[in-house]
Specification:
elongated, 2 domains
C-alpha cells in the first residue's frame, strides 16, 4: 500500500495498492504532486529518474539516501555555531556514478543529522538549498507519521490477516480499513474530549450496538445522556 500522507491532517490523500513484489519507488510513480509541495521519504524511494521528474515539476524532496551512494562533494556549507548542534554536515554534492548522474545530472544538497532518540546518524539528500539544515532534519523526522498511520491500520483495525484471500477480497478489506480509519480520525478531530485513537476504537467496539447520539457521546463519553421524552402519549388515539 504505497501511501502519500498529508502531514497537516495526518490522513492519506493518495493510495496505490499493488502486489507485494512491486518496489516502493515503483509504486510511487503517478503520485499527484503540486508545484511547491514537499515530499519526505525513506531510502527505498532513492529513484533518480523519479526525483528528477519531481525537481523538474517544482517539487521539493527530502529523502534518506542509501549507504552506497557514490558522490563528489562540491562545497561544504557553514554549520550554525550555537544552534542545531545535531546537524553534523551540510554540503553540496553531485553524483559520481555515470549511470546515476545521467538520471539526475543536477547538484544535490546532502545533510547529515544526529538522531539522539535512536542513537544513529541520518543522511538525507534534498533539492532545496534555501532552508536551514535544521529544517531539513526536522522534515525527515516528520516522516515517522507514516509509520504511525500504518501501525494504527494494522493494530487497531487488525489488518494482519484476511478473511478472503482473492485479489478482490483483499482489496475490499484494505479499502474498508482505509475508510474506517478516515472516519475514526474525523471523529477524533471533531470531538471535544481528548481521545487517543486506540481508546476511541475500544469504546466504539463496546458501544457498537448502543443507540447514542454520536457527537454528544464523542464530546462527553462519561456522562449519562438521557433520551428525549416523546410528545406522543401511547394509547391516546383521538386527542387533538
Amino acid at each position: 500500500m504505497h501511501t502519500l500522507l498529508d502531514y497537516d491532517g495526518k490522513l492519506p490523500i493518495f493510495v496505490n495498492i499493488t502486489e507485494g513484489s512491486v518496489a516502493d519507488n515503483k509504486g510511487a510513480y503517478g503520485i499527484p504532486l503540486e508545484k511547491g509541495a514537499v515530499i519526505v521519504a525513506d531510502r527505498y524511494y532513492n529513484d533518480f529518474p523519479m526525483i528528477n521528474v519531481w525537481d523538474s515539476s517544482g517539487v521539493y524532496f527530502v529523502i534518506r539516501h542509501k549507504k552506497n551512494l557514490s558522490y563528489t562533494s562540491i562545497k561544504e556549507r557553514d554549520l550554525p555555531e550555537h544552534t542545531a548542534q545535531h546537524v553534523l554536515k551540510d554540503e553540496e554534492i553531485e553524483l559520481s556514478n555515470a549511470q546515476s548522474k545521467a538520471k539526475y545530472p543536477k547538484t544535490l544538497r546532502r545533510v547529515v543529522v544526529w538522531d539522539e532518540r535512536n542513537g544513529q546518524t541520518i543522511e538525507v539528500i534534498t533539492n532545496n538549498f534555501k532552508w536551514a539544515a535544521q529544517i531539513i532534519g526536522e522534515l525527515y523526522k516528520a516522516r515517522w507519521e507514516i509509520e504511525v498511520f500504518f501501525r494504527d491500520v494494522k493494530q487497531l483495525l487488525h489488518i494482519k490477516t484476511f478473511v478472503g484471500t482473492s485479489k478482490n477480497a483483499v482489496m475490499i478489506q484494505i479499502w474498508t480499513a482505509l475508510i474506517t480509519i478516515l472516519l475514526l480520525k474525523v471523529m477524533k478531530a471533531t470531538a471535544k474530549y481528548g481521545w487517543h485513537l486506540s481508546n476511541l476504537v475500544a469504546f466504539i467496539r463496546l458501544n457498537i450496538f448502543v443507540k447514542i447520539e454520536l457527537q454528544k457521546w464523542l464530546d462527553k463519553p462519561f456522562e449519562v445522556h438521557k433520551e428525549p421524552l416523546l410528545d406522543v402519549i401511547q394509547g391516546d388515539l383521538f386527542s387533538n
